Every structure is written in structure tokens, then in C-alpha cells.
């Protein structure tokens, strides 16, 4: 056995290092290198096109090309959620992440988008990359987290602007508070 190879690798062709094997593999690769395939024939293109029609690239396996109903997704969540899921690590996940990844949040998100007809409510772009925005904060109002009335559909850019404005407003409040405390300290 060649130096450096363990027992299970002995005899496997991809681990062979003898001269005859290396020479043969080089000859084969040289022979195949020069082969050029012509353009794909029309009947073959059509066959591939027909096979892929109506199928989404992300779907695979039993659900390829199918959109699951809400009821079906709820049932799947009940069967494979929590401790029954193969990703379960004993409940160590961040509560915020768990809530935002939950089926309840996804259904809330969908219902907000459907109510607003998949249109950004600031710039009126239809479709685009949409985000659901909580009118009253997700963290501060836990009872309103999944209330459809507390959500608004925004595109990515408008959602970013909304949050930047909130931060700016909070900064201004902080500055005002400091000024007020300085004023009262001086008196």
C-alpha cells in the first residue's frame, strides 16, 4: 500500500497512485478534451422547456411546482414543529427569531400584503421586494404583533426610511431630555 493511504482507501481507483493508472487517466482526459458538442437541437430544447414549465426552481421533491394551502401549511407546522422537528436544540433559540419565523407571523405577513394588494403604502410600487411593517412596535406591543390592523406593506427602501426616521426621532428626544435635565440641574 502506498505511503499515506489508510486501509479503506486501498484498492479504490481515485486513491491509486501507481504509474499505469496516472498515465491512463491522462490519456483519457486528453481524448475527451477535444470533443466539442454542437448546438442543442430544437426538439431537445422544446423537451426541456416542456418539462420545466410551471415549476418553481426552489421547490423540490413531492411539492415541486405546487403551492401549499394555508390549512396544509398549518398542519405541517403542527406535525413537524417544536420538539418533533429534527432541528430541535432544546429550546435555546432567541424568542424574537422564533416568533418571526413562526407560521403565525408568515400568515400575518401574507394577510397584510393581501389587504394592501401587494402595494407599498408609501411609494405605491406594486410587487417589488415587500416588507411588512408594524405600525406599533413589535417589541413594545406584544398583543398587537399579529393584528392585521397593526401592519402596513412597504417596499424595502420605504421600510428602511421609516426605521431611519424613527431612530432620528428617538435621537432628537434624547437630546431634548439631556437639555431639560441640564436646565433643571443648573437651577
Task: Characterise this structure.
The chain is mainly alpha-helical. The chain has a domain at 72-187. It contains six helices and two strands, in the order H-H-H-H-H-E-E-H. Strands 1-2 form a two-stranded antiparallel sheet.
List keywords for this structure.
187 residues; mainly alpha; two-stranded antiparallel sheet; 6 helices; 2 strands
Number of helix segments?
6
Shape: elongated
Report mean pLDDT, rounded to a whole number: 76
Strand segment count: 2
Helix-strand makeup class: mainly alpha
Please report which band the strand proportion falls in: under 5%, 5-15%, 15-25%, 25-35%, 35-45% or over 45%.
5-15%
Report the uncertain regions: none
What would you report as the Rg, rounded to the nearest angstrom? 30 Å
Largest β sheet strand count, sense and barrel closure: 2 strands, antiparallel
Head-to-tail CA distance between termini: 91 Å
Order of helices and strands: HHHHHEEH
Strand order of the largest sheet: 1-2
Helix content bin: 40-55%
Note the topology.
Elements: H1 19-33, H2 42-52, H3 70-80, H4 95-101, H5 103-115, E1 130-134, E2 151-155, H6 156-186
Antiparallel strand pairs: 1-2
Briefly characterize the structure.
With 187 residues, the chain is mostly helical. Helix content is 47%, strand content 5%.
